[in-house]
Amino acid sequence: MNPITLPWPRRILISVLLGALAALASYAQVFWKQDEAIFDTFVGSWEYPPDPRLLVVAIDDASLQQLGQWPWPRSTHARLLDRLTAAGSQRVALDLVLSEPDRQDSAQDAELAAAIRRNGNVVLPVLAAPASGPRMAEELLPIPLIAANASTLGHSDIEVEADGVARGLYLTAGIGSPHWPAFGLALANLRGPLPGLRDPDIDTSSPYQWHRNHYVRVRFAGPPERFPQVSYADVLNGEVDPAVLRDRLVLVGLTASGIAPRLLTPTTREHWMSGTEYQANVASMLLSGKVINVLAPPWQAALSALLVALCALGLTLPRALLCAVLALPLTLLGSFALLRVGQFWFAPAAALGCMLAVICAWVLWRISAWRRQANSDALTGLGNRLRFEQTLQQEHEAGRRSGRPLTLVLIDVDHFKQHNDRHGHHAGDAVLRRIATEIRAHARRPRDMAARFGGDEFALILPDTTSEGAVQVIQDLIASVRAMSLSLGDGHDAQITLSVGLFTRVPSAITEPRHYFEGADAALYRAKAAGRDGYAAEEPGQ
Q1: Torsion of CA 314, 317, 318, 323, to 10 degrees
Q2: What is the largest distance, in Å, between two alpha-carbon atoms of the chain?
Q3: Using only C-alpha atoms, what is the Rg of the chain?
Q4: What is the pLDDT of residues 224-278, one digit of tens each?
Q5: Of 291, 313, 504, 301, nearest to 395 (Cα)?
Q6: Which spans in 122-191 are helix H?
Q7: Residue-range domain boundaries for the chain
Q8: How far apart, in whole angstroms, are the C-alpha atoms of residue 140 and residue 153?
Q9: Can you tell me the distance from the alpha carbon of 457 to that of 55, in angstroms, rounded to the nearest whole number?
Q10: What SS3 state is found at 502?
Q11: Do residues 506 and 442 make contact, with C-beta atoms less than 8 angstroms apart?
Q12: Residue 137 in this model has a pLDDT that exceeds 80
């Protein structure tokens, strides 16, 4: 059946079912790897100028060479903070682990705490220690003496996907409830409602679990080393012009190889990005208003379902090929436009995968339909002359191998031209379709084949059938057609009869398919000469 002849309720039902499958695939994140590959392609080179207020003070290899082995005394960090305070830095984020006191010299803790107090705008990190075995998850805060003097604390938990790439983070997190802002958010010091994907059903009833909320994808300013950076040792030694530090949002953290946390990001797979620079990207993104929001899973699933349903529905329309050609690129383009224009990420892989499966199934179905049409009569749906000749050749060869008889039946509609001339071609076509249906019904076995040559000429190929068996089939066919009452559309009913010729032989080395046709045609001639409305078989001994 041609797809455009399907009833609309069936088209809609099929489209809805396929859309539901796409929604399920989207919700279950079946194609998450493909989604992340698309996301990386879309944002990998989507650069922007970073916020000019941000500055990284890097604990780099040069600093380690000058100041010695890590970790350094906390008094060293206190001296650095005093340098930044004197230069007029706006806010300082110390991305350092300070969760344990200095066991050798407690004065070091007091000195750092005093420097933090003098600055008045220092952000310190909260580390998340995940649950391990019997040990529950916990927050690793700076020691109370130091934490009490900080302006604010921020969690440094970075979301790393299953493929090892960091693409986003939760803007709030904490034990018991997501009460700590992200470290980059704390540095940016933004006020007002937070962006990001919210979890309205977040369960904060457990005071011992790490809860997260407000998930966003990071829009990176560029590849690693995109942000202005000065060496820790140079700032400490006063070798950096104070004007460079004035009114800056300063992020102090590790970048030295071997000790700095390293992250892979969509911007590059060749160079690692330090955790400090990742937090700088978070702060810059928030300050510049370039947050990439993620569509909530129900919206992702609904949009995927809609796209696949529309694609499936389009394939039932006359211009199905155009729909098949445009469906995939338009879906990708829509996801790209939504990201670049609206800063929303729609993961399109579930929709693309289901569309591709639907289009492939449609193409295979159409190829099968075209093959059937190439071997079928357009009016009746029976095999055409080409199919008839191929089947007769095949069954002749099969009968020669098996030694089983093969019967060919040729059928003519009696006085069909008179019916056609009297009642019109439309009525004649209706008669032929009814007769074809009856002939097809008598090709009962899988290898039996009914065909139409054209006009009012039909044929039946009956493999493994003796003359007696074929006669029974034909007698029943003639009786069934004779009993039909065919309305010709002008208030008249027609009585239709058939003339039939049969030829049965066991194929051998000396027979050919044309002998069967010639024999059945001769028998058909005798049936017509005998008055029609009957059959004739080949003469004995012929």
Answers
A1: 0
A2: 127
A3: 41
A4: 999 999 999 999 999 999 999 999 999 999 999 888 889 999 998 778 999 999 9
A5: 504
A6: 144-147, 183-188
A7: 3-42+296-374, 49-289, 385-537
A8: 11
A9: 90
A10: strand
A11: no
A12: no
Average pLDDT, the chain: 91
User: What is the SS3 assignment for 134?
Assistant: coil
Q: Is the pLDDT of residue 205 over 90?
A: no
Quick count: other Cβ atoms within 10 Å of Cβ 340?
A: 12
Cβ neighbours for 220, distance < 8 A, ≥ 6 positions apart: 43, 46, 47, 226, 265, 266, 267, 281, 285
String of DSSP letters for 391-438: HHHHHHHHHHHHT--EEEEEEEETTHHHHHHHH-HHHHHHHHHHHHHH
| Burial class of 262 by CB neighbour count within 10 A (0 to 12, 13 to 18, 19+) | middle
In whole angstroms, give the CA distance from residue 304 to residue 309.
8
Say if CB 226 and CB 288 are below 8 A apart: no
- Give this prediction's pTM: 0.77
**Residue found by looking up tokens 């300082």 in the block:** 92
Residue with tokens 């338009």: 330
What is the chain's length? Answer: 542
Cis amide prior to 71 (ω within 30 degrees): yes
pLDDT surpasses 70 at 493? no
382/472 Cα distance (integer angstroms): 22
What are the pLDDT digits (tens) for 314-361?
999 888 888 888 999 999 999 999 999 999 999 999 999 999 999 999
The CATH classification number of 385-537 equals: 3.30.70.270
Gap between the Cα atoms of 85 and 81, Å rounded: 6
CB-based contacts of 391, cutoff 8 Å, min separation 6: 383, 449, 451, 461
Q: How many CA atoms lie within 13 A of 158 on its CB side?
A: 24
The token pair that represents 331 in the structure block: 């879906």
- Residue 351 corresponds to which tokens in the numbers above? 């929709």
